[in-house]
Amino acid sequence: MIRIGILGLGGVGGYFGGLLAKAYYNSTEVEVVFIARGATKEAIAENGLKIINDDSEVIAYPKLVSNNPDEIGVLDYLICATKTYDIEESLLSLQKCITPKTVILPLYNGVDAPERIQKIFPENDILQGCVYIVSMIASPGTIRRLGFYEKLFFGSKTTSIDKLEELQNILQKAKIESYLVDNIEETVWEKFIFISALASATSYLNQNIGEIQKKKKSMKVYVELLHEIESVAKAKGLQLPDDIVGKTIIKLEKSPKEATSSMHRDLLANRNTEATSLTQFVVNEGLKYGVTTPLYEKIANALL
């Protein structure tokens, strides 16, 4: 039996975890465990996890929903999708469930997660991954997805191909549009360029995607951020697609107008934000590689 834990049941973990739980509900080969506490745990234990799409609803039941490591047991795969500021604390609480054989797939907004996780679990295979999806928590145990765009990318330079293909097979059987890619670091950074500039701009300007596109000044801020982060990525030696700025603007144009970044939503709700991983991180990388990022710096100072 392959045991998969889903840590963090927000827009990303809840959506992809829900698809996995639904697909393997009666399986004798794969068992899906949701790691949750409080209102989320209670809601899922009582009514399952609900995913609301534009024209349909899905209800998924995991084999187990718990935050007790003794109950959860040892995991073969752990998919992590909490907020970046919770990485260390949430993983340390699951030490009993993670053996050196556990493969960890981080699906966070930032790009610094694999390095941070490797420090806690130096013997483990830590993959790199990212997703493209617009989804959020509608209420505890309920995920709302906007639009039809969903893609999951993952890979690793060091993990055995057997393990990677096993995970890809599990994801595809659950009808998740997933891609096992060789140049995963570039793929993750391509996504990070999109999400970092978007999170920084929406939060700083207090505007959603449609409002940013409508206002010339706002678009100027967004594009300037893209140029700064592109310079940092290039200084790191990453082989990015040609005209990454133009391609990222097209992604923005394809996004739902009423949507915004999760960081902006957290800011509006007076919650802790991921500004350290999404905005300040770019400033720090710039300093490391001798690239100036004045707008990122200004926004980081405002948000932190």
UniProtKB/TrEMBL annotation:
Source organism, top-level taxon: Bacteria
Protein EC: 1.1.1.169
Domain Ketopantoate reductase N-terminal: 4-156
GO molecular function: 2-dehydropantoate 2-reductase activity
Biological pathway: Cofactor biosynthesis; (R)-pantothenate biosynthesis; (R)-pantoate from 3-methyl-2-oxobutanoate: step 2/2
Keyword list, A-Z: NADP, Oxidoreductase, Pantothenate biosynthesis
One Gene Ontology cellular component annotation held by this UniProt entry: cytoplasm
Top EC class, one word: oxidoreductase
Function text: Catalyzes the NADPH-dependent reduction of ketopantoate into pantoic acid.
Family statement drawn from the similarity comment of this UniProt entry: Belongs to the ketopantoate reductase family.
Name under which the protein is recorded: 2-dehydropantoate 2-reductase
Organism of derivation: Flavobacterium saccharophilum
